[in-house]
Amino acid sequence: MKQIMLHGANDWRIDDIDEPTPGPRDALVRIAACGICGTDVSYIHMGMTPGHPIPMGHEMAGVVEWLGSEVTGVSVGDRVVVCPSDAGQGPMGTGGPQGGLTPVLYVPDAANGKRLFKVPEGLALTTAALAEPLAVGMQSVNQSEAKPGDKVAVFGCGPIGLFAIATLADRGVTDVVAIDFSHARLDLAKQLGASHVLDPSEVDVWAELKRIHGEVPFMFGPTAATDVFIEASGADSVIGDVLQNGRVDGCLVIVALHYRPVSTNYVNLLMKQFTVRGSMEYPERFEDAIELLERRDLSAVISHKLSLEEFGEGLAVLEGSKDCGKVMITMEGAE
Fold first, then answer.
1. N- or C-end of the chain: fewer Cβ atoms within 10 A?
2. CB of 321 within 8 A of CB of 38?
């Protein structure tokens, strides 16, 4: 059986692995689709743990092929999303012993009820595989506590930023400015619910935020009246810019990974009583993401569908195109 494995820095391979032997609390899921995440690209460049191959893939959906006698709540033949979060058996696809970039995924301790979630009828499995990144974007909105009437700016319109925008729209937050260098991604942002879009190469973002959201007074001059900022770009300058230019009592949620130290003047945070929060993983109910996929068609976020053998091409797209959305690896016969 094939599995994408990471052997070291910039050394990923399609390995042949043994068929899993599940026990009474386990399950086997025939994978239909698994997205490639920007985190996967980062892990490939870092190499994870040298000498210890890591199976990759953590955005997956498929069909239950086998169930242990102690697993309840799902049946053989059910279409499911697999939650990769650490449920006592290690995370899937991000350093743990399993990964979703394989035709058949071994799901240990599926009996704990935290791994397998049914996919509603009518929702394609390739779209259902968006549940994991959608849950990440959704959690950033949860952390922001944004509510209808709030003015929001989202920096970065990759899949996570786009899913934050979709979540905001679903919750009735309609004054949302999307910021990205890609016009293709900005078009998607408008489609998913952004009221305004800005390309930093064409406009002064902070002047535009003042124009769109209005201004509020501050001792050193008026600032944009934006209530909530969601940082989904990973750009080093954004955090400092928000603290310098944001309003008193503003909120910044950081959902993008910043691998390098970020320098900023924390006097801005102090004087403005700014709230800064990180956002990691998912809502308490992972099903919230699946239910949103059922309510709203978010399939347009998928820009590429490739086979397992084309994984390298998918990585090249992610690293070489600022316009790409979600790159999805689909298995033979996937919906």
1. N
2. no
- Would residue 209 be called left, alpha or beta, if left means φ above 0 and alpha means ψ between -120 and 50 degrees? alpha
Lowest-confidence range among 25-29, 44-48, 60-64, 308-312?
A: 44-48
* Cα→Cα distances 173→142, 213, 322, Å: 12, 13, 27
Report pTM.
Answer: 0.96
Residue 26 is predicted with a pLDDT of: 97
Task: Give the pLDDT score at 51.
Answer: 67
User: Which domain CATH number covers 48?
Assistant: 3.90.180.10
- The verdict on residue 112 lying in a domain is yes
Contact (CB, 8 A) for 187 and 164: no
- Coil, helix or strand at residue 206: helix
Q: Do 170 and 230 fall into the same domain?
A: yes
Tell me which residue range forms the domain holding 200.
133-278
C-alpha R_g of the chain = 21
Residues 193 and 257 both lie in one domain: yes
- Check: CB of residue 115 under 8 Å from CB of residue 83: yes
Q: Taking the C-alpha atoms of 253, 255, 258 and 259 in order, what is their torsion angle to the nearest 10 degrees? A: 140
Whether residue 222 lies inside any domain: the answer is: yes
Q: What is the dihedral of CA 175, 179, 182, 188, to 10 degrees?
A: -20
